[in-house]
Each structure stands twice: as C-alpha cells, then as structure tokens.
Specification:
Organism: Adineta steineri
InterPro entries: F-box-like_dom_sf, LRR_dom_sf
Strand content: 25-35%
Protein name: F-box domain-containing protein
Number of strands: 21
Shape: flat
Length: about 450
C-alpha cells in the first residue's frame, strides 16, 4: 500500500485527475482521504466531488446501502471535508437520515432517494413536494390519491420513456394550489396526459410550465392554453410558462407567422407574452417558442438567429443552435441579451459568411463553462481570437482536440494565445485514435489550465 501511495505522489496532478475521473469517486474518496495533503487536495477537487452516489449497486439493477465500514468513514472523515462542494446526492433511504445529518450541504441542488417506501414518503412530504421523476406516467401515479394533502408540487421530468401506460384517473385535485412542471427534454403526450392532468387541478392558484412539445399538427399558442387549460382554473392568479412546439411540416400544414401566434395572446391582459417562430426550411421543420415575460428561468435552450433582442437577466445557462451561420453580430446580441450567462453551449457547423474585422469585441464577464463541440472552426476562432472575444479568467473549455489544434495552428498562433492563456480547465476530446496527444507539449499554450484528454 505504501509503495502504491509513493507512486501516486510521483504523478502530475493532471494525470492523477485523469485516473481518478475513470474511477468511482466514492471509492477514491474512501481510499485516499487523509493519506497525505496532495492526494487530499486532488481527491477533494470541487468538480470531482460535486455528485456522489452513496449506495451500492446490485446485479438486478436494484440498490443497497454502503457497507458499514465505508459509511462510518464517510460520515466521520470524508463528508466533513467535501460537504460544501456537493451539488447532488443519491442516497439509499435507510442511510438518508445519517448522511444528511452529518454536515450542512449549502450547495446541494438535487437529492435522489431510492428504496423509499410510499408510507415513508407520505410522512416526509405532507404539504409540499419537489420531485424529479423518470417520466410523465410517474407524475400520474404520484397524483393517484396517496398525496392528496399536497398543496404545492413541483415536478421535473428527466426523459420520456417509449412505453405507453394508460392511467385513466379523472379525480379532481382540489387541495393543490401551486404546480410546476418542467419537461424540457420533450414529450408527445401533451394532449393525452398533460392537458387532462392540468384539468384536474380545479383550485390551482399558481401554475408554471416549462415544456418542449412534439407530435402535434399545430403549435401550442394562446388559444390552446386558454381553451384547454385556463378555462378549467377559475382560481388561477399567476401563470408563467415557456413552451416550445416542434413541428415537422407537410403540404397540408399552413406555416403560422409570428404575428399569427402573437395575436392569440391578445386576451392575456395580466401577462406580457413573447413569441417567435424559427423555420428550418431545409428540413421542413419549425420551432415555435412562447413564454411569459420577464423570463425568470436560469436556462434558455436552442437559441437561434431569430431570438428576440430583450433582456434575459435571470438566465445563467444557454445553448445556441441553428442551421444558418451565427455571425459576429449575433454574439454581440447574445452578450447584451444574456449579461449574466455562465454556461454556454454552441452547436453550428455552418461557416460564417461575413468579414468581421471592424466589429466590436464581445465580452463575457461571468462565463465559467464554454462547450464548443460539433461546431465549424469559425466559431472556435470567434471565441478564442482576442480581436473578436474577450474571455474572463474563469473559463472551463470543452472542445475537440483536432479542432483546436487546427485553429491555433498547432498551438502557435498569437491571436488565440491570450484567450487560451486565460483558461482554467481544458477538456479535450480526441477523435482520431491514431493521434498521439502529449499534454506536456501543449501546456505552454494553456499555462493556467488543468488539461484533460479523452478518446
């Protein structure tokens, strides 16, 4: 054991992080915390410790609690050192109380409880419940009467299973006063499941919907919302929403204009509603987005060239996608509309068409994560060239190795070196298996970054 520790100590931090990243972090923390300062520092890295699954997997896809010796060490030595880094905890219900009482978790955003019996859940969640579910049918099971005392329910749906289960429950939910449904991953069950569920909430006072809808022949607009939802909620006082309808066009569908959509909200006196339609004409596909304003969510996904030039000051995470090029002026609009963005993901393989030599420099004052995968080289240059963009000293960049190698001219180009020298972390995806990547050879170009490579 001592020889193994000495060998680990001799390795550079970047190599150790690559090794640890391929291992179950719970096992690494159990084995190395308290060994020496170097291993403590690396094992307690905020990125490495932000998500913990404190349970044992069993062969039949079920879970069990950690062995007592492991649990004891975590509660006494590990959690007190890393509790402030943890953003998500997956726990087996029998150890829940012990682990949660070990420390405060100031940055915990997600708690997953497994093997939780219905009676225990009903005792824990009497009037308010914030829950993450695997699909919409789980939400219907939740509202089958066993949680009839709830007055506040906020639901986040992870995905939509391909299976279809018919749950014909028309019982009203008179005690429910506040309901939030976040199903951004997409569903084709809006008419068959979501609308009937909402119509049962006859005394609802606050409703918040964040939906991506497919499978309909028409977009969800003001007429649809009023007819199928609002007319069933006489007590409703607050309604916020962001809904994206995805429709593949055929010769029988009339393409709605933005004015057509906006006119359906003329009776929404208590809300300012923003709408816009983006036409992906080459694939005969449209996306229609409608949302209440001001937009208070922290995420805004699939931003196209047509996005409205208004302020999204609450948004911290955005993704950009289009099959038309993003010119430099588009990124200037992004920084003005999303002044507080921290995480930016870009997907666009269309080359830029304009020369932007005399344009203003875009500045991302709060950016911490930048993901440039499946992009044309023009957008890598857009972000890394100091004549186009000024990055802060806080950015974690994820990118393909071959792409950044091309744009930086094999890590020698002067116009991209300033922004590259500001990076604090570089995550490289190596697409060519025959590409022998030596991280030491490029360290000079990213002097302040921890560099990781993955094939």
């Amino acid at each position: 054991m001592n020889d193994s520790i000495i060998q680990l100590n001799d390795l550079p931090d970047e190599i150790l992080m690559m090794i640890f990243g391929k291992l179950w972090n719970v096992r690494v923390l159990y084995s190395l915390i308290g060994i020496n300062r170097k291993l403590d520092r690396i094992a307690c890295d905020p990125v490495f410790t932000r998500y913990l699954q404190l349970m044992n997997g069993i062969s039949d896809n079920s879970v069990g609690q950690l062995p007592e010796i492991v649990l004891n060490r975590f509660c006494s030595h590990v959690l007190p050192k890393i509790h402030h880094h943890i953003r998500r905890l997956d726990l087996e219900s029998s150890t829940m109380e012990r682990i949660l009482s070990t420390a405060n978790y100031p940055n915990l955003h997600q708690l997953v409880l497994l093997n939780l019996h219905a009676k225990t859940a009903a005792c824990l969640f009497t009037t308010q419940l914030y829950v993450c579910l695997s699909d919409l049918t789980d939400c219907l099971y939740l509202l089958d009467g066993r949680f009839s005392q709830l007055h506040t329910l906020r639901v986040y749906i992870v995905c939509e299973k391909s299976t279809r289960v018919i749950i014909d429950n028309k019982d009203k939910l008179p005690n429910l006063e506040r309901f939030s449904l976040d199903h951004r991953s997409g569903t084709d069950l809006y008419d068959n499941l979501i609308v009937p569920l909402l119509q049962r909430m006859i005394n609802l006072e606050e409703l918040d919907l964040y939906l991506t809808i497919s499978g309909k022949q028409t977009v969800v607009d003001g007429t649809d919302l009023k007819k199928n939802i609002l007319n069933y909620m006489s007590q409703l006082k607050k309604f916020s929403f962001s809904i994206r309808s995805n429709i593949y066009l055929n010769n029988e569908i009339n393409l709605p204009s933005n004015d057509d959509i906006q006119n359906t909200f003329k009776d929404f006196k208590d809300n300012e509603i923003i709408s816009y339609v983006h036409n992906f004409s080459r694939i005969k596909y449209i996306e229609c987005r409608i949302f209440s304003y001001p937009y208070r969510r922290k995420e805004y996904e699939r931003i196209t060239n047509d996005f409205p030039s208004i302020s999204f000051s609450y948004v911290r995470e955005i993704s950009l996608f289009d099959n038309q090029p993003f010119e430099h002026d588009f990124f200037l609009r992004i920084t003005q509309a999303f002044p507080n963005v921290k995480i930016l993901r870009l997907e666009n393989e269309e080359p830029q068409k304009k020369n932007h030599q005399d344009s203003s420099i875009t500045r991302y004052f709060h950016l911490t994560e930048l993901h440039l995968l499946e992009v044309h080289d023009d957008y890598i240059e857009e972000f890394l060239s100091d004549s186009k963009t000024c990055l802060p000293n806080t950015v974690d960049l994820t990118i393909e190795y071959e792409a950044i190698q091309r744009v930086t001219e094999n890590f020698t180009r002067s116009t991209t070196q300033i922004n590259c020298s500001k990076l604090i972390r570089l995550n490289l995806y190596v697409l060519d298996d025959e590409n022998d990547v030596n991280l030491d050879d490029i360290k000079h170009y990213f002097p302040h970054a921890k560099i990781f490579a993955e094939s």
